[in-house]
Amino acid sequence: MSFESESFAAAPGGDRDAGSLPVSSVEDAAPKPRAHGASVANVLNDLAPSDADAPAGQRDTLYADAVRYWRENVESHENEPYPATEFDAEWLPETAGEWVLLVKSSGWKAGTGYGDDYSQYYEQHIMLRERVETDDGVELRKPPLALHVEVMPQYRDLVFKSGDPLECPYGEGTRVVCWTTWAESGSEVERRMYDAIRAVYGDDVLDVARDRNPDSRRVQKAEAHYRFDRDKKGAVVETVEQSKDLVAWGGNSEIDAHQKRVQEGWLEARVESDRWDLLGFADVNFATEVKIYEIPNWHKRPASDPHAHPKIEASFAGADGKLPHVSEWDDAMDHLRTVVATHAHWAGVERADLVSDDFFDGAGAAEWTYHRPTGRREHLRQRYQEVATEVYREALKDSTVAVYDILRVIATETGATYDMLEDRTGLARSTIRYHVARLAREGVVKRLGNPVLVVFVSRDLLERSREILDRARPGRTADDMREDAEDRREDREARDTPSETDEDSDAATDDEAAPQRDEFVYLGDVPETIRDAAVAVYDGRLGDEDVRIRERRLREAPG
After folding, report:
1. What are the beta bridge partners of residue 368?
2. DSSP E strands: which ranges in 45-118?
3. CA-CA distances (angstroms) from residue 110 to 58, 80, 105, 151?
4. Backbone angles phi and psi of 536, in degrees to 5
5. Taking the chain, what is the end-to-end CA distance rounded to the nearest angstrom?
6. CA–CA gap between residue 338 and residue 40 (Å, rounded)
7. Ramachandran class of 174: left when φ > 0, alpha when ψ lies in -120 to 50, beta otherwise
């Protein structure tokens, strides 16, 4: 899939490198990841100074023209979406049907007036559809090449329903946003947007060269992806999960991570972070999301169907400050493509593993040169050595073998549910949940799906843990675990079953009666020490239902 050159370069990062893992990069080559979804926003300063005080309906802006078009042609929401015009453009793919632009309106976030006199404004929408003849008649379909244009007012006299004024950071006039797919540049997104606007409202409704605010041309969405063979999905998911772990480990940064267990044990993973520079990627001024996903019921499709195979996608996920400018499009896409190609390389995805579809050439994709971060193997070795040490520490705790037993079940079964852990260890579920949560905080295990499946954070750690657990307590056999599990269950059942007493006997007195096993007493009256009680909770002989804590709240003294 790639070649490596002999020239290495330090990874960028500026001052942020202080908390980074040691990284470098190598020039590499790979099939070029395909651009997918995209969105660009522009503001047209088309509100003439003489119109600033005029009623909104009498202003001469693109937004005002769009509203007038709706009133004269659509007239009612019952007629939406309204087929405005047939459409043709050289960037549209050939189709057996016809291209049509639809329009509709929807309530917008701002308007005029206050309280009961508040009047909401409506944004205008233009949507691309394909008109197709079917056995049941004419059908308007949403095509793979999507196009959705939003037209909104930018007037400083508008307010939110709360009464707060509408901010117009790029001046007054009209704000337009285009959402589309399979565009290779920000200017291509803008071109499609203005082609659709002119087709619906007329060629004379705008003068882009005159009115567009140059600084307002901002990227709202950008994506790049590979579609790859489904047999490689497990390795790709594992690689993305490792990156999530390394970014959090190297920078102690907050990461938005989601995983779920799906059909046949496949995993879908999504990670969002603004610290990918920790792994040697470019230090961009926006957050990046990486995800692996598939369409529903993918497993019911034959392998010959491209949609039976997953995608790995990197996308722009917002910025704290200004969004990237259209002029930065190429740099942003290079970053996203680098993230995709690098993770594919790390996961062992070869050119032959890429799957072609209507918009991606798969194994036949053009060669593309990029700088791939290196040092990942050493980062993972250091990270898993650190976590493996924690596994060993947990397995050798003097106070209890409960954690060892939990880890042993997870390692033996390559993942375990709470039901399985409860059955194999005999521990109370509350005790199991406590230890699993603590092990997850330590980065040893993670919890997937619903019902929860508890697994080690990586396959590497799973294999290491099996060796560690064998060495930690070599004399502890499966029979020992079964016997202890049964003892724990019997002990809990005995505590839950009321003991026979002589309270109905005339011979028994209060002084002679022994306290019941389920009776709660003050800590000072318990013959065991607080450490003994803590150990009993820790190894599962006492659960949440056996311990009461009195919370005392002290009132502040007056004055």
Report:
1. 30
2. 82-87, 98-112
3. 18, 22, 14, 13
4. -65, -40
5. 75
6. 22
7. beta
| Residue 447: burial class (beta carbons within 10 Å; 0-12, 13-18, 19+) | middle
512 pLDDT tier (thresholds 50, 70, 90): very low
Q: Bigger pLDDT: 18 or 140?
A: 140
- For residue 206, the SS3 value is coil
Measured in whole angstroms, the distance separating CA 261 from the mean position of its chain's CA atoms is 14
For residues 149 and 328, what is the distance between their CA atoms, to the nearest angstrom? 22
Beta strands (DSSP E) in 73-157 are 82-87, 98-112, 119-134, 137-141, 147-154
Query: CA-based angle 286:287:289, to the nearest 5?
Result: 140
What CA–CA distance (Å, rounded) separates 116 from 321? 35
Tokens 């949403």 -> residue = 142
CB 175 within 8 A of CB 43: yes
User: Per-residue pLDDT tens for 299-324?
Assistant: 888 999 999 999 999 999 888 778 99
- Map residue 44 onto helix, strand or coil: strand
Cβ(456)–Cβ(465) below 8 Å = yes
Chain position carrying tokens 């389920």? 518
* 159 CB-contact burial (10 Å; exposed 0-12 / middle 13-18 / buried 19+): middle
- Say how far apart CA 522 and CA 250 lie, in whole Å: 46
pLDDT value, residue 397: 75
The burial of 356, by beta-carbon neighbours within 10 Å (0-12 exposed, 13-18 middle, 19 or more buried), is given as: middle
Decide which of 475 and 22 is more confident. Answer: 475
- Closest by CA to 266, choosing from 308, 316, 302, 206, is 308
**Counts of helices then strands in the chain (DSSP H, E):** 12, 19
**Which residue, chain included where needed, has tokens 């697994």?**
455
Distance (Å, whole) CA 99 – CA 423: 61
- Decide which of 250 and 16 is more confident: 250
- Average pLDDT for residues 422-438, to the nearest whole number? 91
SS3 60: coil
Q: Burial code of 145-154, b = ≥16 C-beta within 10 A, e = fewer?
A: bebbbbbbbb
- The span from the CA of 125 to the CA of 130, in Å, is 17
| pLDDT of the residue at 137 | 80
Alpha carbon 195 to its chain's center: 34
Amino acid at 505: S
- Look at residues 286, 290, 280, 36 and name the one whose alpha carbon lies nearest to residue 179: 36
User: Can you give the C-alpha Rg of the chain in angstroms?
Assistant: 32
Positive or negative, the Cα torsion across 418, 424, 428, 431? negative
Q: What per-residue confidence (pLDDT) applies to 248?
A: 64
Tokens of 129: 């559809």
Q: Distance (Å, rounded) from C-alpha 424 to C-alpha 388?
A: 23
Which stretches within 94-217 are classed as H helix? 186-201, 208-211
pLDDT at 265 over 80: no
Query: How far is 358 from 408, CA to CA, in rounded Å?
Result: 48
Question: For 469-515, what is the HEC assignment?
Answer: HHHHCCCCCHHHHHHHHHHHHHHHHHHHCCCCCCCCCCCCCCCCCCC
pLDDT, average across residues 73-83: 94
Take residue 115 and report the two structure tokens written for it. 């309280």
